[in-house]
Specification:
Number of strands: 17
Number of helices: 9
Number of domains: 2
Oligomer: single chain
Largest sheet: 7 strands, mixed
Distance between the termini: 34 Å
CATH superfamily of the largest domain: Nucleotide-binding domain of ferredoxin-NADP reductase (FNR) module
Order of helices and strands: EEHEEEEHEEEHEHEEHEHEEEHEHH
């Protein structure tokens, strides 16, 4: 985000006014890829951010001036190229607007990050990295980091059907075992990612940790699947967020009966301690407002095309 000094008032006769700081330049989009009619990839160039980024962190994007601030988990980063990759699902007004406007060569007004606590990549022997739907992309950096740190990595990813599968090659490069699940059975195991977790648990009695990223209902199911075995299960929470610094309180979540903030205390939390019911109820709070915003934006687009 652009930063400016105060009004430049002289503080004393010997202190000059603070100089004005120019707005940071817009962030250039260097690649775009569409995985489906609603899921798309944006890669932007930001060398300093790419150098600092770690698995599990997120950024806050403002696509255009006076636009909405939206938190997006980092799906990949390349320090050599100086780029950050996001995989986005067009479900709300702003993400639909970005799907239409963001192309290679265009720019984002502002990107802030990396934010949040990085995932803890300890010296684990065996881990299961689980991604469902849009959660497939952000679990990739974690799978890669665990593998590069010497762990035996089992990847479990889930999609509705085979036509929606993406990044299979990227996962296979870093996973010692790789399991795909699909709702309709058109690829891999028929069923939810919990079936993949069960398969991994049946074949391995020495799993140190399960990392699950996806919709709240999916992460809750993953946590319940591992709870009887007592396997540590980490989940990544992405609730409603405004400033990303813990000041607004919009992203508060209940963890073990205590209130925490996803933006500064997370986004990774112990899945067995998360109050998922409270989280999902909070996410529904602005459903009608979001629906109305999409409808208004859609009508504006139609009016623009008609004229």
């Amino acid at each position: 985000m652009g930063a400016k000094s105060g009004d430049g008032a002289v503080l004393s006769k010997t202190i000059d006014p603070l100089p004005m700081v120019d707005e940071e330049p817009a962030v250039e989009i260097v690649a775009r890829e569409d995985f489906s009619d609603v899921t798309y990839l944006l890669e932007f160039r930001h060398p300093m951010m790419a150098k600092a980024a770690k698995p599990g962190q997120f950024v806050i994007v403002i696509p255009r001036e006076h636009g909405e601030r939206i938190p997006l988990t980092i799906a990949d980063f390349d320090r050599d190229k100086g780029t950050i990759t996001l995989v986005i699902q067009a479900v709300g007004k702003t993400t639909k607007e970005m799907q239409q406007a963001c192309r290679t060569g265009t720019t984002l007004f502002s990107v802030v990050g990396p934010m949040g606590e990085p995932s803890h990549i300890g010296d684990l022997g065996k881990v299961v990295c689980v991604g469902g739907g849009l959660g497939v992309a952000p679990v990739f950096p974690q799978a890669r980091a665990f593998k590069e740190n010497g762990a035996y990595v089992i990847g479990v990813i889930g999609f509705r059907n085979k036509d929606l599968v993406f990044w299979e090659d990227k996962f296979r490069k870093y996973c010692d075992e790789f399991i795909i699940c699909s709702d309709d059975g058109s690829v891999g195991i028929k069923g939810l990612v919990t079936e993949g977790i069960k398969a991994a648990m049946d074949n391995h009695d020495d799993i140190d940790e399960v990392i699950a990223i996806g919709p709240p209902i999916m992460m809750k199911a993953c946590a319940e699947t591992t709870r009887p075995s007592g396997i540590k299960t980490s989940v990544s929470l992405n609730p409603i967020m405004v400033d990303g610094t813990g000041m607004c309180g919009g992203c508060r979540v209940k963890i073990g009966g205590k209130m925490q903030f996803a933006c500064v205390d997370g986004p990774d939390f112990d899945g067995h301690q998360v109050d998922f019911d409270d989280l999902m109820n909070r996410l529904k709070r602005f459903t009608e407002d979001e629906k109305l915003a999409v409808e208004r934006w859609t009508e504006t687009c139609r009016a623009g095309k008609a004229s």
